[in-house]
Design a protein that fits this description.
The protein has 158 residues and is an alpha+beta fold. 34% of the residues lie in helices and 20% in strands. It folds into 2 domains: 41 residues, Winged helix-like DNA-binding domain superfamily/Winged helix DNA-binding domain (Arc Repressor Mutant, subunit A), CATH 1.10.10; 79 residues, Lrp/AsnC effector binding domain/regulation of amino acid metabolism (RAM) domain (Alpha-Beta Plaits). The longest helix has 13 residues.
């Protein structure tokens, strides 16, 4: 039995790869500076970046903020079991909460994995009791506090 369904993907060439590497290191780098480093014109860089954006390869440009530098001292990961019929509703509520930095539907019919950042333990406790535990459809929550960050993925390094 053959699988006729194929996920379309965009084939990156060496120049696209180099552009993505440079943007990954510094998304504020100018088209001119990228062009100088990869050996193409500023206009060609702009066209390639526009194509990478149109293809969905580059999803967005963003700023990475160090949470501890602004007083957000508690970083925690949560595994949230949800009744299947409430999964989308709970995921939408959590995705819209400013404390939630990432949210994923993991294997299993009703498992959400999320990361949250809080000023202190009291703020996290309030989030747990007032938001997570109080949300209809949430069955259980497993919480793990971050001790030390060794690597944080901000986009995909190719």
């Amino acid at each position: 039995m053959s699988n006729d369904f194929q996920i379309p993907y965009f084939k990156l060439d060496a120049i696209d790869q180099s552009i993505l590497d440079l943007l990954h290191e510094n998304s504020r780098i100018s088209y001119t500076d990228i062009g100088k480093q990869v050996g193409i014109s500023r206009v060609a860089v702009q066209m390639r970046i526009n194509t990478l954006m149109e293809q969905g390869i580059i999803e967005r440009f963003t700023t990475v903020i160090n949470p501890t530098k602004i007083g957000m001292m508690v970083s925690a990961f949560f595994n949230v079991d949800v009744e299947p019929k409430y999964l989308e509703q709970v995921a939408e509520k959590l995705a819209n909460d400013p404390a939630v930095s990432s949210l994923y539907h993991m294997t299993g019919p009703s498992k959400l994995h999320m990361h949250g950042i809080f000023a202190d333990n009291q703020e996290m406790e309030g989030f747990l009791t007032d938001k997570l535990y109080a949300t209809e459809g949430v069955v259980s929550v497993d919480t793990q506090l971050l001790i030390k960050r060794y690597k944080s993925r901000m986009g995909m390094k190719l």
